[in-house]
Amino acid sequence: MRTMVIVGSGPAAFTAAIYASRAGLQPLLAASSVQAGGELMNTTEVENYPGFPDGILGPDLMARFQAQAERFGTEIVHDDVTELDLDTGVKRVQLSDGTVHECATVIVATGSAYRKLGLAEEERLSGHGLSWCATCDGFFFRDKTIAVVGGGDSAMEEAMFLTRFAERVYVVHRRERLRASHIMQQRAFQNPKITFVWNSQVTAVHGDDAVTGVRLRDTVTGEQRDLDLDGLFVAIGHDPRTHLVHGKLKLTTDGTIAVDGRSSRTSVDGVFAAGDVVDPHYRQAITAAGSGAAAALDAEAYLAALASPAPDGEASSIRPGQYT
Ligand SMILES: Cc1cc2nc3c(=O)[nH]c(=O)nc-3n(C[C@H](O)[C@H](O)[C@H](O)COP(=O)(O)OP(=O)(O)OC[C@H]3O[C@@H](n4cnc5c(N)ncnc54)[C@H](O)[C@@H]3O)c2cc1C
Question: Atom 20 (ligand 1): residue with closest C-alpha?
C-alpha cells in the first residue's frame, strides 16, 4: 500500500509532492495523460511568480516544479485518475489504464477550468493577447485597447482592474443588461475608460501571432462587425474540476471542494484538497503552491497521528501546527 497519491500536476500538486517526498512519504503523482502541468502550460510569460525576477515561461516553470518533485523521489505517472474510492480507511485510486493504487492519503489538486468561448483560435492565441486572468496578464496591456467578455461580477472586476493599464476597455456582453451585482455595475458604468458593447457575441478572434481584434455578432439583428483590439480577456466563469469527488466529498456553494477552515482537510479523513479546486477567489500559481504545501503538511500530520494515535484514538482531531 502507498502512503500518498496526489491527483493533478499543477503548482498545487507538485508543491504537495515536493513537501511530501522531502518528508519521505514517497508520493505517487497522477499527472493526467493530456494536460500535465496544469493551467500554466497554456500561457507564455509568468511575471508574478516569486524567485524569477525576469519572468519565466509557464511551461518552463512547471518543468522546474516537476524536476524538484522528482529530485526528492516523487513517482510520476502520466495518466488520468478515473475513479476514487474514499469510503474506507484505505483509499483506492484507479487510473485510466485500469491500475488501482491503494493508499493511506489522497491529495486532490485537480484545479479549475476557465470557461472558454469555444472558438478554434482560442488555444493558439492563449498567452498571445488572449487571457483568462487580468491579475496575471493586465500588466502586459499598458496603454492598449482591450475587451473583456462577460457580464457577471468577475467580468466587472476584471474590466475595472484592467483600466489601471489599458487606455480603453470594452465590455462585450451578449445581453442588454449585466448579471453583475448592482454595486459592481454602478462602479463599471462610472469608469470613464470602460465602454459597453451590448447584445454582442464574439464569433471569431483575429490575429496570426497575437490578437488584433474580434468579430462580433449582434445577438438581436444578427449583423456582424469587427472590433480592433490588442487583447481579449474571457471572464465567463470557471468550473472547479470536482467530477471525481461528486457525492464523495462535501462541496461549497461555489462548487469548490469544502475544506476545514484554513486547512486542506476535506469532509473525509485522510483526503486533502489544494489549489484552485478549493479556491473560488485568488486562483494564482503562488496561492495554489502555498495550498499544496499546506496539504502535504496536513497529510503528514494525519499519518503521524495514525502511526501513534492520540489517547482518544482520533486522527481527525489533529489541528494545524501539530506537525511542528
Ligand atoms: C492562460 C492562463 C494564464 C495564467 N497566468 C498566470 C500567471 O501569470 N500567474 C499566476 O500566478 N497564475 C496564472 N494563471 C492561474 C494559474 O495557472 C492557476 O491559478 C494555477 O495553475 C492553479 O494551480 P492548480 O495546481 O490548483 O491547478 P491546475 O494548474 O489547473 O492543475 C490541475 C491539473 O490537474 C489535472 N487533472 C485534473 N483532473 C485530473 C485527473 N482526473 N487525473 C489526473 N490529473 C487531473 C489537470 O489536467 C491539470 O493539469 C493563469 C491561468 C491561465 C489559464
Answer: 285
